[in-house]
């Protein structure tokens, strides 16, 4: 390093890394966002691809969910849970004797039981900050393997009505200092079991770590805080080793999942919101069976919004499948503020034979909308892997599709050229940039957050001080001189207002999360 060397440079906007088509659409989106801020028209409850009808607020335009929120009759018992009207000593077996604690209901439930959860915030036993079904980590004992149960949120406190948007069931810790996933859910049969598989449903819950994460306090006049503009709730998210010279808020920076699962059988995660999750919205290990992730909102999650790996031996992989459809995936952030890695909306992981990813909306993901992972050491399994990617909308992603490559640089593929990616198929049609006429969707995104992302820049500087105490000592012992590097993004994983995430349901007909019935 040269003496007194000071180097500084400003990286291009992330938008400059987008495809040409995406850049054009990004400009259009920004204009729509600005117009929406000035508009006096109330937000529409639905939209169509006809621009003339996109601003209509008629209830007839509400898009119905592709997944019914109706709860099927329980094969076992039904438990009732209400944080506000329940009792700590109730048995939970009727609406009039509802339990207060969701964790207590999970502990009491047995195979095939159903748990109905009323609006409120659920923090686990004695507000420890997390919920669990089975043990996080390797499930070696029967009690650690969890159980096949179904959980449905979104009920009124008297259980007379279910509406997951009106009656919000939250897992939203505040000052709890926990080291487990926000919700860890296991459902595995004993090893060597050959009988029928079970069913797991997680439906109608909000997973929000925004009140627990550690951020810089918002200050648009102080660059180090990473506050892009007025209206963004916080400054940038702080990584575990960060010690910025500015005020901070919140509590934890460690890697914690929103929903972590180790499951098999028939599994469905639907009508949920995953927001401000600092280590994946959903991260799951899937055994033999089928998992469906549908009609969810993923927004401002870090690492990746959703990844599901197969957790079986190679011989069992043909019996594992995964459908990821009708989800809205926005603002997925990279692992660090330097934007080096991660930041995928959805990942085609290994260990699953057939994955279908369709009818989703992927927008403003800081690395890529979709990543197709490669079998690096098993050519036979790579050949048999089926990765279907079709009928999805994309906008303002740094990359639309990223193809992992063994021993080589990854390949970036824009939506319009996904059909040329041999790793995708046999279904690959219908991947397009979001078309005009979806103003209601753009307007439903928090405008300050969207504006901040679309003007994102990274300032990186390097400096060297030969007279620093460290360098004086290093010279004495003949060691290398040391410099410092500062990376300052204008925005990084800032808190998104969880209430506004609800507004994204049902804004684009047949794409993204639809309006729950």
Query: Which sheet architecture does the biggest sheet show?
Result: 16 strands, mixed
Low-confidence stretches: 1-25, 36-64
Strand content: 25-35%
Number of helices: 7
Notes on the structure:
The chain is an alpha/beta fold. It has a domain at 1-51 and 214-249 and 272-517. Helix content is 11%, strand content 27%. It has seven helices and 30 strands. The strands form four sheets. It has a 16-stranded mixed β-sheet that branches. It is globular. 48% of the residues are buried. The model is unreliable at 1-25 and 36-64 (pLDDT under 50).
Give a quick rundown of the structure.
With 517 residues, this protein is α/β, with parallel strands linked by helices. 11% of the residues lie in helices and 27% in strands.
Summarize the topology.
Elements: E1 7-10, H1 20-38, E2 78-81, H2 102-108, E3 114-118, E4 120-121, E5 131-133, E6 150-155, E7 169-171, E8 183-187, E9 199-203, E10 206-208, E11 215-216, E12 248-249, E13 259-270, E14 273-275, E15 282-294, E16 297-299, E17 304-310, E18 320-325, E19 328-330, E20 344-348, E21 354-358, E22 361-363, E23 368-372, H3 379-384, E24 386-390, E25 393-395, E26 401-403, E27 411-413, E28 432-433, H4 439-444, H5 447-454, E29 458-464, H6 469-476, E30 483-489, H7 498-501
Parallel strand pairs: 2-3, 3-6, 4-7, 5-8, 6-9, 7-10, 8-13, 9-13, 10-14, 13-15, 14-16, 15-17, 15-18, 16-19, 17-20, 18-21, 19-22, 20-23, 21-24, 22-25, 23-26, 25-28
Antiparallel strand pairs: 1-29, 11-12, 26-27, 29-30
